[in-house]
Design goal:
Helicase, Ruva Protein, domain 3, globular, 11 helices
């Protein structure tokens, strides 16, 4: 403050003016700084409000629950009750919305990120530990152990990353609120609806609660 005053010749001005000017500037600065925080707060409230929305009152979702129960021969009340607890997730919609200016994907960068020494070692250990199970799976489904291990490595890092989203929320959001801006909305929405049906069948067969399982933004 002293250096600024000396450089500008402020010492020649009355003391009151010298004291008031910084106060006004500080007050104006405070106003400018408060604006972004209000916007951020509003966005935060909007996101929180959106995430409290469930599909309990969505007629399309409830009709889908009825159809899933019929096709998969599941308890209608169980499917309907579970579907009613699904939440709309704005973050999932954002994740699948194409960027305004899409760029080309760099395979070399992706390969370097995925094929790390740590992940390769973890994959080899996984295949050794679960060799018998992988062999049975190959005999039953015809999928080589290396393919199964590779997919698990990319998707979960062999169980270290199990996802941050409830699978039910993610699949319901993509099945009933897929973004209109996506060029392949119709087929992608149909795909996620079928995934939602498969998810209910999977949970029923294995005794899982659909509301508790977690996965990625794509389910």
């Amino acid at each position: 403050m002293l250096a600024v005053a000396l450089a500008s010749g402020a010492w020649a001005q009355p003391p009151k003016k010298l004291e008031r000017a910084p106060k006004k500037a500080a007050h104006a600065s405070a106003k400018k700084k408060s604006a972004p925080s209000k916007v951020a707060l509003k966005r935060s409230k909007n996101n929180q409000a959106a995430q409290t929305l469930t599909y309990a009152q969505n007629p399309v979702a409830m009709q889908a629950a009825k159809s899933i129960a019929q096709v998969q021969q599941l308890d209608p009340a169980w499917v309907r009750s579970s579907m009613a607890q699904a939440h709309y997730l704005p973050s999932v919609v954002r994740a699948v919305t194409p960027p305004a200016m899409p760029g080309s994907r760099d395979w070399a960068a992706y390969r370097a990120r995925v094929l790390t020494a740590q992940r390769i070692e973890a994959g080899a250990a996984f295949m050794r530990t679960h060799a018998a199970t992988l062999a049975r799976a190959e005999a039953q489904y015809g999928v080589p152990p290396s393919i199964v291990a590779g997919i698990l490595g990319v998707e979960t890092i062999y169980g270290r990353n199990m996802g941050q989203y409830r699978v039910l929320d993610a699949l319901a959001t993509l099945a009933f609120d897929f973004p209109d801006s996506h060029p392949k909305k119709a087929p992608r929405q149909a795909y996620f609806l079928s995934e939602l049906e498969t998810f209910f069948a999977f949970c029923h067969s294995n005794g899982y609660d659909p509301v508790t399982l977690r996965g990625s933004y794509a389910g």
